[in-house]
């Protein structure tokens, strides 16, 4: 089974409108197939220097560097 709850389980916290019926979990077959791959990390093929994999890695490193610098400014 892909989902963590059986069908017809009441999903607490998803019904945000008053006087609405509770939200129930559906069977796995009724969800779209792409839903089960949403949380898998994207894997870039290593296509040499200057390729997509290197650019994605550099961008991730730069974002982390900026976050670290901003954090140090608050200390």
Detailed description of the structure:
The protein has one helix and no strands. It has one helix spanning 52-73. The protein is flat and about 50 Å long.
List keywords for this structure.
75 residues, 29% helix
Total helices: the number is 1
β-strand number: 0
Report strand %.
under 5%
Distance from first to last alpha carbon? 46 Å
In short:
By secondary structure, the chain is mainly alpha-helical. It is 29% helix and 0% strand.
Layout of strands and helices, then pairs:
Blueprint: H1 52-73
């Amino acid at each position: 089974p892909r989902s963590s709850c059986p069908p017809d389980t009441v999903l607490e916290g998803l019904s945000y409108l008053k006087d609405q019926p509770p939200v129930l979990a559906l069977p796995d077959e009724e969800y779209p197939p792409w839903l089960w791959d949403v949380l898998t990390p994207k894997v870039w093929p290593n296509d040499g220097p200057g390729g997509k994999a290197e650019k994605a890695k550099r961008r991730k490193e730069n974002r982390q560097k900026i976050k670290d610098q901003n954090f140090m400014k608050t200390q």
